[in-house]
Amino acid sequence: MTFDAVFRAARALIDGAFVPAEVGVRDGIVERVAPLGTGLDAATVVVLEADEVLLPGMVDTHVHVNEPGRTEWEGFESATRAAAAGGVTTIVDMPLNSIPPTVSVAALAEKRAAAQGRVFVDVGFWGGVIPGNLDALRPLVAEGVFGFKCFLAPSGVDEFPAVTAEEMGQAMVVIAESHSLLLVHAEDAHTIEIAPHRGGLEYADFLLSRPGAAEDTAIADVLREAERTGARAHILHLSSAASVEQIVAAKRRGVDLTVETCPHYLVLIADDIPAGATTFKCCPPIRDEANRDALWSAVTTGAIDMIVSDHSPSTPELKLAGDGDFELAWGGIASLQLGLPLIWTEARRRGVALEQVVALMAERPAARVGLHGKGRIAEGAAADFAVFAPDATFTVDAGSLEHRHPICAYDGRELAGVVRAAYLAGERIDRDAPRGRLLRRDREVGAGRAA
Ligand SMILES: [Zn+2]
Questions:
Q1: Tell me: the pLDDT tens digits for 326-383?
Q2: Looking at residues 164-187, what average pLDDT do you find?
Q3: Which residues contact 228 (CB under 8 A, 6 or more apart)?
Q4: How close is the Cα of 283 to the center of ligand 1, in Å?
Q5: Rounded to the nearest whole angstrom, what is the distance from the C-alpha of residue 161 to the centroid of ligand 1?
């Protein structure tokens, strides 16, 4: 029997452990996992170097591509090239910052048309919940969105307004009936409104304007409404570790809840952010060192389910607007290409294993959104891989990253873990040949099949 491709690695991540293995691929699917030395035959044989490990491609379910409408901020080509360079073989695109936002079937069709034939990794889409679009949710589910996002505080763009907790509850009723998923940007609008907004160059002042209490209040609303409606719910970009306790309690009560956090909350701390350095602005904000440690603890116990990028670039003009005034600059950090090395660098310093990092960044996000054939190397799963050299190091150079603008909060940082190659459906991702597919939640996507 001859495969299309065979991968031979002294260390391949199979069933949560590194083992010497050969992986045989046919028609984009892993057809055989065998011990190294079996001698599987193929037209293409990829033999990993001694310092490399074979990982499943990462699955990043929180990416703002911003196209169409704000393509000058990012775009499908640049974002998915960055993904591939970072070992991410599947992304799910957020419904906002593009114009139109993905809050109707017509808007979803515009997104798909913009992405078609131009993506280097597989791409799925989230829909959006805004005031007044309840009737669009079921049709969007039927059109294959992976779930919906809403905000409980202003999103930063006028065309994607926040909902009230009550409106979120109404959406959850529909989402529960549709077996879909609601992602919530959980910061409470009122708590932010009454917080001091001094503006200016000091990060500490910005931090006071987005207190952890805003997250804690909004998360309590999400937990209550998810419990009441039975909806599947997901807390986006958890920054306030103070909420871990109520999250764990809700999970114990059986609320169908998952929680993500992001590299910036696990790697950076408020004290290290220089005055006027608005490249570090994001919402919710990066908090203090004790908070970062508590988030790591929640990641390792499973209270936090996954790590995704929240890659959210803009133009340099907006990111640096206000000459260092944190109130005026655009909030968002671009890290799609760096997520795996960022987390790995910090994880190994803390004694967290690479196996666990990959579970957090590939298997769990894939499983939560219904991509059961992605995020792991197994017979029947998609042949999406990252070739990773965990002990190799590099220095981040913002100008050489693949995302559109050379702005990066990690510029100049030395990181461990080099992504040497990425494979999609068994074929090496080529910088000039977009072979990514557009995914639909309502189809059999488990084995990497696409619309
Ligand atoms: Zn986001």
A1: 999 999 999 999 999 999 999 999 999 999 999 999 999 999 999 999 999 999 999 9
A2: 98
A3: 169, 172
A4: 9
A5: 14
Threshold 0.85, pTM exceeds? yes
Contacts of 92 (CB under 8 A, 6+ apart): 60, 61, 62, 63, 123, 124, 125, 126, 146, 369
Q: Is 269 exposed, middle or buried (0-12, 13-18, 19+ CB in 10 A)?
A: middle
**Torsion of Cα atoms, 108 then 109 then 111 then 115, to 10°:** 140
53 CA distance to ligand 1 middle (Å): 30
Distance 86 CA to ligand 1 centre (A): 18
The full DSSP string for 9-27 is EEEEEETTEEEEEEEEEET
- What spacing in Å lies between the alpha carbon of 312 and ligand 1's midpoint? 6
Between the CA of 97 and the centroid of ligand 1 the distance, in Å, is: 10
Q: In angstroms, rounded to a whole number, what is the distance separating the alpha carbons of residues 31 and 226?
A: 39
Q: What is the 3-state secondary structure (H, E, C) of 212-228?
A: HHHHHHHHHHHHHHHHH
Helix (H) or strand (E) holding 61: strand 58-63
d(CA 325, CA 171): 36
Distances (CA, A) of 126 to 137, 257, 310, 438: 11, 17, 13, 12
Distance CA 373, CA 331 (A): 34
Q: What separation in Å is there between the alpha carbon of 286 and the centre of ligand 1? A: 14
Question: Is residue 446's pLDDT more than 50?
Answer: no
Cα-to-centroid distance, 138 and ligand 1 (Å): 23
Residue 32 CA to ligand 1 centre (angstroms):
37
Over residues 72-97, the mean pLDDT reads: 97
Is residue 195 classed exposed, middle or buried when 0-12, 13-18 and 19+ CB atoms within 10 A define those classes?
A: middle
Where helices occur in 157-253 by DSSP H, the ranges are: 165-177, 189-194, 203-209, 212-229, 244-252
C-beta neighbour count of 50 within 10 angstroms: 8
Cα Rg of the chain, angstroms: 21
Can you give the pLDDT at residue 443? 67
| Ligand 1 centroid from CA 59, angstroms | 15
